[in-house]
Amino acid sequence: MQIIKTHTAIMTAALIMIVSMPALANCELDTGYQLPKGVGFGFDCEFKDGLAVVDNNDKYGVVNKQGQIIVPLEYDNISSFSNGMAAVEKNQKYGFINHQAQTVIPLKYDGIGLFYDGLAIVQVGEKFGYINQNGKLVIPTIYDLATNFNQGLAVVKKDNLFGVVDKNNRIIIDFQYDWIGRFSEGLARVSKSGKSGFINKKNELIIPLVYVGASLNYYVDGNNYNFKNNIAPVKKDDKWGFINKNNEVVIPFIYESIIPLKNNISLVKDNEKWQFINAQGNAINQLTYDDVSFLQQGMIAIAKNDQWGVVDEYVSFLAPLQYDKITQFEKKLMLLIKDGKFDILNQRGQVVLPVVYDDLAHFKGKLAPVVKDNLWGLINQQGKILLPAIYDGFKHTRNNLWVAFKAGKVGVFDENGVNIIPLVYDSMSDFHNSMAGVAQNNKWGMIDEDNNLIILIEYEAIAYFSEGMIGVQKDGKWGFVNTDNQLVIDYDYDMASVFTEGTARVVKDGETFHINKQGQRVD
User: Fold this and answer.
1) What is the pLDDT of residues 73-107, one digit of tens each?
2) Residue 17 to residue 32: CA distance in whole angstroms
3) Staple partner for 323: which of 305, 306, 327, 336, CB 3.0–4.6 Å?
4) Which residues, in sequence order, are bridge partners of residue 30?
């Protein structure tokens, strides 16, 4: 999921706004329906409560399975719906809306989190507090940092020290620690003066502060190096091992690094080699690796003898050790490079694009360009070739259209690969207010997104429409025509700009001045 953090730096799992970026191929409308023109799903998408997030020109809204706009595309960000509400952002303010697009919690906060245990973090200025699902501020915004409630408790920071409060803002654990992790299996890791141990919910020190504080850079599966399945990794005398809740060593302190993963598996480093072990300290397989790199969606790139592969959270191979390089391509896709070519692999280990292309660009909207033998094509999010690599290039527009170039001609495809403007023009400007300038035989005109001719292709140069007028050039002079292609201001000017608030700047005989829409000089 894509995570949009608020304007203030916060600890992991604290105040966030989470935008819906769900699973591949789940965002499909019912048969026979389509999205409104210009509207698209994000790269990752799924329907929740029958609704999905869509965007157009960086404005977000929500549609149903029939492609109907349920929430207008007017927000700067929006989460997926949960319990009938979605977090939204507009003009750097946050709140919540319901399925009817009604504001149920005003957009007045500087940051907002989703609801956990019935409460959500809110930010006002540099301080944090909590609201309930009715929008009532139940814990005032007095804390420097805050985390989501878990089992009725939340870790908060005040005056540079961490403590724990309950839903009534009663202090359960005094503000005395340099750091507190979340409670897991009844215990939470705490740090003070560079040493860490574990406390229970009564603030009783169950495991003394004798271990090196765990790095906050490691945050896997929400563990924060806390107890899971009755064991926790700790560091002592520069080596890592595991202890149980009785502070007994269950895996010796022999590792240079330990990274807890899911499924009772940890990644450990010893003598500069990485290996996967289980909760008993036994190797998952007999392989050791020279390097590792964490990808998204729980995938891990591993290297041995300069060859890279990919495993999942269960240490099952998704890609064999045969690639020269592996990088994250998109949220749920990986780029596997071999001999200068590449595969695209999804999180299920399926190759969605075989090793035939020389290069590719990142997705914009639903499509990504690919290159083969210096020619370009377009693929969709499932790796399907939507347009073959026969074009000289592509340019993506803000309204999710693709301008295509081939043999000196230019046209436009939509994000479904449909050629909505044929490749018959010599040149084309960017779309502005759903219109673009086009050229043929050194003459310019203007079309809309349906290839309807708005301005005849008869001018030496054109500007763009503003306030119902557009500057055009004939015989070296500029004038203005209206949306009906009627000349309303004669060709009297050496240069002309667009109209702004009723006037346009023009140049005539070396003099610069402004005219109104009747062609009268106004300064």
Assistant:
1) 999 999 888 888 999 999 999 999 998 899 999 99
2) 33
3) 336
4) none
Please name every residue paired with 54 in a beta bridge, in sequence order, or none if there are none.
Answer: 41, 61
> Which amino acid would we find at residue 101?
A
- Beta-bridge partner residues of 207: 198
Q: What is the pLDDT of residues 235-258, one digit of tens each?
A: 998 899 999 999 999 999 999 998
State the pairing for strand pair 266-270/273-277.
antiparallel
Candidates 162, 135, 168; CA nearest to 147 is 162
Average pLDDT, the chain: 85
Tokens 């890592």 -> residue: 240
Please state, in angstroms and rounded to a whole number, the distance separating the CA atoms of residues 349 and 352: 9
Residue carrying structure tokens 């609201």: 131
User: Residues 199, 192: contact at Cβ < 8 Å?
Assistant: no
Strand-pair partners of 197: 190
Q: How far is CA 366 from CA 141, 412, 416, in A?
A: 40, 15, 8
- Alpha-carbon distance values, 256 to 215, 267, 268, 290, 414 (Å): 13, 11, 7, 14, 52
Q: Do 429 and 410 touch, CB atoms closer than 8 A?
A: no
User: If DSSP codes are grouped into helix, strand and coil, which group holds residue 481?
Assistant: strand
Q: State the amino acid at position 152 in one-letter form.
A: G
pLDDT for 219 beyond 70: no
Q: Are 133 and 118 in contact (CB under 8 A)?
A: yes
The pLDDT score that the predictor gives to residue 493 is: 95
Helix (H) or strand (E) holding 60: strand 59-64
Instruction: For residue 253, give both structure tokens.
Output: 């302190």
